[in-house]
Amino acid sequence: MDKTPGKVHNTTLKSEVCNETFEVQYYLPKSFSDLYKYHVLITFDSQDFFKFGQIERLIEKLEKSEEIERSIIVGIPYPSVEWRKHYFNPNGENHDDFLTFVGRELNSFIDSNFPTLKMPNSKLLLGESLAGSFALSLALTYPNTFGQVLAFSPYVDDKLIDRFKDNMNLINLNIYHTIGLEEDDFTTIMGEQADFLTPNRKLHDVLSDEPLEYVYKELDGGHIWKTWKPELAEVLTYFLN
Q1: 157: left (phi over 0), alpha (psi -120 to 50) or beta
Q2: In the chain, where does DSSP find H-type helix?
Q3: CA separation (Å) from 211 to 106, 166, 181?
Q4: Interval 215-240: pLDDT, tens
Q5: What distance in Å separates the CA atoms of residue 27 and residue 3, rounded to the nearest whole number?
Q6: Cα separation, 147 vs 100, whole angstroms
Q7: Long-range CB pairs of 94-100, under 8 A, 24+ apart, other chains included
Q8: For residue range 191-221, what is the model confidence (pLDDT) as tens digits?
Q9: Coil, helix or strand for 92?
């Protein structure tokens, strides 16, 4: 396995539960060494986190200035916009199997191939839009494996909200949740009109009364990386400092 530091690598992982092979991306910082243990940033929509969020540059900068602890990035890219609807959406036909793939098979792949800190608070799930919904769903399903979640503007419906109500596993979670003030009426990449602001505020009302660590922000802007990218540095220092 190629462990050249300072570059984004692409590999594949065969899933037994899904009976298909998924692409996996990973980034090891320039200072990477097997002598150290690392936090893991697990990104969904990983190609967007690299291209638009430039997350690898950010961890290099923050690690160099000693604002975050040592971290690597492992991500799942999406092969098509349509694919996200079936795998990331909590109501998608492949969602449950994909949860098992990430929670068991991908997690095992990460711990077997990289020197990781094998604790729930050392694995941070990151996602935006449907990928943010998937990150929340995954943490609810495997709270003893993944203890930290960033959800930028997640797709939220009543079914997802109900999963958070009176859920005793929430005590293990630390969630950073944002929504844009211009997301009350916008066109999704699927070409559909949507209001994400209202249901995300409803989710916030529920989470505010539950026993977990929780940060909620309403950001100036819409459902785009121009809104999310400026928040990434604060997110990483919040979880990894």
Answers
A1: beta
A2: 46-51, 55-64, 81-87, 95-100, 107-113, 130-141, 158-164, 197-207, 225-228, 232-240
A3: 28, 9, 26
A4: 999 999 999 999 999 999 999 999 99
A5: 9
A6: 16
A7: 94/18, 95/134, 95/137, 97/17, 97/18, 98/18, 98/134, 99/134, 99/137, 99/138, 99/141, 99/142, 100/17, 100/18
A8: 889 999 999 999 999 999 999 999 999 999 9
A9: coil
DSSP-derived secondary structure letter, 116: B
Do strands 39-44 and 123-128 pair parallel, antiparallel, or not at all (unpaired)? parallel
* Domains within the chain, CATH numbers bracketed: 8-240 (3.40.50.1820)
Please report, as a single letter, which amino acid is at residue 177. Answer: H
Place of tokens 């609807």: 85
Residue with tokens 């690898």: 56
